[in-house]
Structure formats: structure tokens, C-alpha cells
Amino acid sequence: MSTIISEAKEVASTLEGLKAGERISWLYETFGDRVIASSSFGLQSAVMLHLIAQNAPKIPVIFVDTGYLFPETYQYIEKLSGQLDVDLRRYVPKATAAHQEAIYGKLWEQGAEENRRYATFNKVEPMNRAIQEIGGDIWLSGLRKSQSSTRANRTFAEQQRSTLKVYPILDWADAQVTSYFHEKKLPPHPLESKGYLTMGDWHSTRLPMEGEDAESTRYNGEKYECGLHEASSENDFQI
């Protein structure tokens, strides 16, 4: 365990002195097939996808399709994946949305415990399976400190059981993301223009009311993380 913790600290220290594209290049050059990435195709996902395409396009990018995304998100996936050269791998839950609702009802309407079950079925288990099948143990994600209070104290690399999670744009401010979109002429998510501040499944994401921030528009303000990026949770990966 001490060796694993030491690796996380060394990776975090190295990344701190590099730019985002350099971080991704260094990770792939150093760790090769151990490196994977994930994308939710949310409002700001194009940044990480473009950085990967430009600096390490061989990194597999896992997309967990819950079956509950907005139609506009699926349209965005088609557009971005056609425009950017990334190795996209789509994973789905073992049971379809219709099957789950027939057996369990609408889990997201049944309180915190059933919401955790929903996350396990539709997000954690497919991601777990993807990591096991692809074989990587260093997982790149586009989390940023400025996105929510739950992410403010993250470091560039942290251990989640046997998976090392790495955040190449952790220190980017919102303005830097916006600038990158304009500079690289990346298409925005279709729902951004409608006023959405963050993006997830249709039943856990809503438009903000006056004065609300992004955290308030997810899960009725009860939480922000979907289960994949919780710092400490029973949903942590078991691989």
C-alpha cells in the first residue's frame, strides 16, 4: 500500500509543474497501456477530449451510457466523436432502463439509499467492468476544483483502491475552459444555451432558478457527485 500511495504523490508532484497537454503526454509516455480516460459528454467534456486527441489519442476513453441521458447529449456525442480523434469505448448497464424500472421502480425517486443503488447499477458497475476489461489502472478524468465544493480539495492524483485517478485540468478556472472552447473552436453542448449549468441524467439535472449555482441543480441540491467521483463512498471501485 505504501508503494501505491508513493506513486500517487509522485505523479501529483510531477503534474503540478506541467501544462494540461504536457500532463496527458507525460502520463501516456510514462505509463502507456495503464492509462485510460472517461467522459460524460457534459457541458465541458470537449476540453479533455480535445486534449487527449491532441496529446495521446491512443488512450481509451470510456463512456458510460446510463440510458437516461438527455436526447441532446446523445446528439452531442455523435458530433464530438465524429470531430475528435479519440478511442471511444461505450459501456452500458447490465440491465436496461426498462428492465430496472419494471423490477425496482424509479430508483432516483426513492431516497438516498436507492439513489446509491441507481448509481451502482448504471454508473459504477459499468465503469468497473470497463476498467477490468481494458486493463488500465490509471484513470484520467476532467474534474476541476472550481466545479463544486466536493472537488475543491482534490489533488492532481489520488488513489481509489487499486485505481490511480488523475485530473489533468484540475487547476483550470471556468474562464480558462471558456477560452479553450473559443480558441479550439469546440462545439458547445446543445443544452448550454438553454441555461443548464451542469449536465447528467435527465432526472437528476434541472435548470437553475434565480441565484442558484451548479451544485443546486443536481439531485435537488442534495449532492453533486453521481457516484463515480465521490471521494469516499461505498460506491468506490472494488477492483
SSE diagram, text form:
Layout: H1 2-16, H2 20-31, E1 35-38, H3 45-55, E2 60-64, H4 71-83, E3 87-91, H5 97-104, H6 112-134, E4 138-140, E5 157-160, E6 163-166, H7 174-184
Parallel strand pairs: 1-2, 1-4, 2-3, 4-6
Antiparallel strand pairs: 5-6
Helix pairs in contact: 2-3
Say how many strands there are.
6
How large a portion of the residues is in β-strands, by DSSP E?
5-15%
**The number of domains:** 1
Strand order of the largest sheet: 3-2-1-4-6-5
Give the CA-CA distance, first to last residue. 14 Å
**Backbone structural class:** alpha/beta
By CATH, the superfamily comes out as HUPs
**What global shape is seen?**
globular
* Model regions low in confidence, pLDDT < 50 over at least 5 residues: 223-227, 231-239
User: Describe the biggest sheet?
Assistant: 6 strands, mixed
Please identify the top-level CATH class. Alpha Beta
Give the count of helical stretches: 7
- Which sequence of SSEs, written as H and E, runs from N to C? HHEHEHEHHEEEH
What is the helix content?
25-40%
CATH architecture: 3-Layer(aba) Sandwich
Look at the structure and give the mean pLDDT. Answer: 88
Radius of gyration: 17 Å
Structure, described:
- By secondary structure, the chain is an alpha/beta fold.
- It has a single domain (2-195), classed as HUPs (Rossmann fold), CATH 3.40.50.
- The protein has seven helices and six strands; from the N terminus they run ααβαβαβααβββα.
- It has helices spanning 2-16, 20-31, 45-55, 71-83, 97-104, 112-134, 174-184; strands at 35-38, 60-64, 87-91, 138-140, 157-160, 163-166.
- Strands 3-2-1-4-6-5 form a six-stranded mixed sheet.
- Helix 3 (45-55) links the parallel strand 1 (35-38) and strand 2 (60-64).
- It is globular and about 50 Å long.
- It starts with a helix and ends in a 55-residue tail after the last helix.
